[in-house]
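**User:** My hope is that you can spare some time for a protein that puzzles me. I have put the entry right below:
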Amino acid sequence: MFRYIRNIAIVAMVFAFTAQVSNAQVASSVSASAEVKTNLTLTKLEGSSINFGALSATTPGTIVLDANGEAGNANTGSVTHVARFDLTGANSAITVAYDASVALTCSTAATSMTMTPEVVGALLYSTTDQTNATAIANASTITPTAGKYYIWVGGLIATLTNKESGVYTGTFNINVEYN
């Protein structure tokens, strides 16, 4: 009888151990996919730049290079330019990210100033479309139609008080990617 009880105990332990082991293994699955879209291109219009013009060191107040066109400029030089970028790709949500500020460094003195970019965009390109273009916040989403979108970049410089004479330059970076 003792042998019978011992064998039952051994069989029960094997079943208990097997039950615990089988619960430790769980399987699941998930599908995988990818959507391939038309390549994005962001092309700077040839000769396009952000240029506030020739400014006086005593220019009062904020210098505004309006991305929507010259009518909104304030305290700039007489010859100014906003940058224009042509975006092409699929008619799909695209994130536009850019530098929140740009350091402009003087070529002749150890001084700099900060430009705050103003970025606007429109689905079509014409002077009227630029004038009516809407602001594009940094890291926001746009959706082109007909595979195209146009972006203009101007900016603000807070003040020129106590700035050395010279040419101030810097680099503005902008990136686009599908969502």
In short: The first strand starts at residue 41 and ends at 44.
